[in-house]
């Protein structure tokens, strides 16, 4: 029998090659390949429009964007975050010499549990760093109230939430600032790339972010601060510009596949399909299901692997359980995050995933979970 194609959770989207070539031709002509060139500036502007944010600063990747955003605060202290995220979120805190304080997540959408957050705020808290995990939007209203009440900025890790809106408002416009990732595996990408978006005018923050990503160089003879190299190059900006023209289709195709999974999996006992969040225009970047029953998630993971289907235990282990962090930082023990991390399984979803593959995966889950 012919071996079936291996299925991974994602496949990078690419625009038609003819659309990318004119950008390459222009770069061959001008030889201006990086350092805030024409495409960088155009991409920045188009992104601000698309995301409905006041300003955008571009970076070489999402992680550097987040690290430099935290650095721009100029403070050392505690930053409250959740351990149910990608390594980058907590690494950005620790690499800035700050201390992560792990707050638990809530059970429906896996975002920071605002009811448990207040008790973790101390005189040393310098920021709150929640994650719009899987594109589920955090409780932005309550986080806004907490931010105002305590005078602590909220920086969002919005790496999963590109293009989403909450009650019509661009998700990158909430809080002090938001980081987006344009990594090749994300719903929208510039091969590698990232951005910080700001909802309200903040020229001081913009100036600092620019300086930090450009060695602190603000003029031929002026170096203002000890920055690093976090610039996005023109090839990445070109890919971003091309993909931005297609993001609407990409999301539509993802939604169709998401709905197909939903029709096959929503009533399977022993499996929890994601709930709908009121007021959220989703990007369908991920399909995280939960498999109930002790050890069942791991068994089903192995079973799918044998079939050439490669889901991800995304996010397992919790960041607070990594070898480099275990037992080192304060928090409330995060029992819900622990439980979810043992049940979660993200399934393949991307714009050209075959419907027959969705059926193949769903049949296994229907049989094994019930
Ligand atoms: C992808 C991702 C990042 C890091 O972005 P890169 O562009 O890969 O550096 C940070 N946080 C989360 C939640 C992510 O998924």
UniProtKB/TrEMBL annotation:
<feature type="active site" description="Proton acceptor">
    <location>
        <position position="186"/>
    </location>
</feature>
<dbReference type="GO" id="GO:0030170">
    <property type="term" value="F:pyridoxal phosphate binding"/>
</dbReference>
<protein>
    <submittedName>
        <fullName>DegT/DnrJ/EryC1/StrS aminotransferase family protein</fullName>
    </submittedName>
</protein>
<dbReference type="GO" id="GO:0000271">
    <property type="term" value="P:polysaccharide biosynthetic process"/>
</dbReference>
<dbReference type="InterPro" id="IPR015424">
    <property type="entry name" value="PyrdxlP-dep_Trfase"/>
</dbReference>
<dbReference type="InterPro" id="IPR015421">
    <property type="entry name" value="PyrdxlP-dep_Trfase_major"/>
</dbReference>
<keyword id="KW-0663">Pyridoxal phosphate</keyword>
<comment type="similarity">
    <text>Belongs to the DegT/DnrJ/EryC1 family.</text>
</comment>
<keyword id="KW-0032">Aminotransferase</keyword>
<dbReference type="InterPro" id="IPR000653">
    <property type="entry name" value="DegT/StrS_aminotransferase"/>
</dbReference>
<keyword id="KW-0808">Transferase</keyword>
<feature type="modified residue" description="N6-(pyridoxal phosphate)lysine">
    <location>
        <position position="186"/>
    </location>
</feature>
<dbReference type="Pfam" id="PF01041">
    <property type="entry name" value="DegT_DnrJ_EryC1"/>
</dbReference>
<dbReference type="GO" id="GO:0008483">
    <property type="term" value="F:transaminase activity"/>
</dbReference>
